[in-house]
Amino acid sequence: MSHPAYVRTEGPALPLHLLDRAGYPAWLAALPAATAAWLQTQGFEAAPGTAALLPGEAGVAGAVLGIGDRLDPYAYAHGPAALPSGAWVPAAEPAPAERAALQLGWGLGSYRFERYKAAPRTPARLRLAELDAEALDVLDACMRVRDWVNTPTQDMGPEHLEAIAGELAAAHGAQVQVFAGETLLEHGFPAIHAVGRASHRAPRLIALRWGEASHPHVAIVGKGVCFDTGGLDLKPADGMRNMKKDMGGAAHALALAGLVMARGLPLRLTLLVPAVENAVGPDAFRPGEIVATRKGVSVEIDNTDAEGRVILCDALAYASEQKPDLVLDFATLTGAARVALGPDLPALFANDDALAESWLAAGRATRDPLWRMPLWRPYLRYLTSDVADLANAGSRMAGAVTAALYLERFVPEGLPWAHLDTYAWNDSARPGRPPGGEALGLRAAYAMLKARAGA
């Protein structure tokens, strides 16, 4: 297998020493005096995220990367930008788990979104004796999320999400069914239609099915709001600026499904992506409207900018009808989750403690952290409507919790369900985390599903 972040085993490569602060003094003491003095003069201490070049008679003889947690891919992600372009090989062969983390981190650190602008330089490339195939597939899934979220809406509308699902299906022998435009009403998806009807691009529900009937059945749902103006409750300019990322939940769901299929996990998948553009127009849904839903629950529109849960409720109801063993949904759903947990920690809600803990444990193991938030049902009072069964928004209190409670209304009691309110975005540059789209909770979700499948 090959990937542009890596080089094949043949050919020259400079040695790369991967050191933490604890191991650095002993390594330094074994160096020739001149090389040790060179590093000491620079004040290099192998702190996480640092790098230093080693001198040689012909120029650069190698380099040292300061790292922290050896099982955290991001411990190595500064390497591709910190080192000169060219090939680098670990000076000592890492243990298998560390090698997989190194490989993944190097790939994440090499990522550049180049669809519209070339990268300013070629990242340093890593040479490994053997590439870990699973780590390579995980990397590809993460990069797909980044690419899809970074793509502006003119090239990432509902029809493009449909095309992505079709490509995944063709690659892995899955089947795709699409309900689009007025067909949504004919087949019982009125809430998806209501949110997307004002756009010139038809709303749709994309369904992908894969796997053997005898395998455990997992339904994955992803919010696909390809651009969110806020609707008639129009967002201010700053709030609308990055709303191409509001399909980040769909990006996670599609990438996770693709990863499960690529790895051949013994699971049966139903992937559902409600894909819309929340646009302003003569037919836009309005505050105060009563929207029908697939489940028969009437919803009063308190705020048209709380549209994600409105499309998800039809998709979750349909997912539940398929009688899966488990339902997962991904959504860039609330700013309240970001206020509570910041950009790095997706908010996890679940109606099943064992499911929640398995996802949290997978996050700890993969260094892809999540934080569980409560489904505090007394807060359903904030979604009370005088004229409908439910309001789509209400009080500003506990916004992430009330959004999750809204979604839970459309999942049958007893069906294990987890909802991830993820940011899908980096606001600023850090090693391995360039500004723009980001996969948050994806690696943990895959590890959790792999464990549940016994693979």
UniProtKB/TrEMBL annotation:
GO MF annotation list: manganese ion binding; metalloaminopeptidase activity
One Pfam family matching this protein: Peptidase_M17
GO CC annotation: cytoplasm
SUPFAM superfamilies, per the entry: Zn-dependent exopeptidases
Listed GO biological process terms: proteolysis
UniProt entry keywords in alphabetical sequence: Aminopeptidase, Hydrolase, Manganese, Protease
Domain Cytosol aminopeptidase: 303-310
Domain of life (superkingdom): Bacteria
Family designation: Belongs to the peptidase M17 family.
Protein name: Leucyl aminopeptidase
Lineage start: Bacteria, Pseudomonadati, Pseudomonadota, Gammaproteobacteria, Lysobacterales
